[in-house]
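Q: May I have one protein plus its fold?
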Amino acid sequence: MTDGLFRDGDLIRLVTREGVLIAAGGAASLLQTAHPKVAQGVYDHSYTADNPLRRLQNTMGWLYAVQFGTRDEAERFSALVRKGHEQITGPGYEANDPELQVWVAATLFAVAAQFYQELFRRRFSDAELDELYQQTKVYATILGCPEDRMPAAYPDFRVYYAEMVQSLKITDASRAIADQVLNPKLPTGPLGAPGLAMVRLLTAGLMPAPIREQYGWTWDRARQRRFRLLMTALAAVYPRLPSRVRTFPREYYLMTTRRTLAKLSAQRDPVLTVKTPRKPA
């Protein structure tokens, strides 16, 4: 596809086409909500607890539209996200705050780069990491964040990210969201238990130690060994799967996104529905 924001040879597409990255989404999500302002906004407004599958659909639909959709699809979906974020405000936070947009984009880059390299046993060069970082700035800029608010290059990103990881202080809202993310109400019931156990282990293993410790998750030698065994097994099996299997989530979410955009285009003033705020934690 040549009419999108990116081309097929771009690193952002190489990395994010892999559907297994969804399994690492918990780490990115809970890194985001380690920021107190992000956490409070999500806690007050999100429908994650009530409908986690819908939340996943909207998140992945937007990401795939930006990464693989046409420019029009990426911009239209992002305009809807921005409009929805205008309603996500409260004491001390606004979802469209560039500070929060930068942090969310940073977590998406950091977790995807880490997980991809572990999974494919490939180490990106500093030049490749800078290329990927520059491309993932779109997660913030397409939502209105000025590019000059973001770390300019990968070395600057590393400084910013390390400082954030060391300085963030998670809140009760952060912990409540972590419980929702790691113990979701799924229609599969007990049948989903093995998959959830894997996601919990990946989330803990991919989480920077200072944040993991604040969440209070156990991380002893036995748990670390299980994480390494899981990554070894995934690295041995997943890259050998047919491409159509590995990219199925992308095809599915792009299909549903395009159906949604087609329906919204028939409406005069489509807006995102945002849950009524709850009382702060």
User: Anything to note?
Assistant: The CA atoms of residues 13 and 269 lie 32 Å apart. DSSP finds 15 helices and two strands in the chain. Residues 272-281 have pLDDT under 50 and may be disordered.
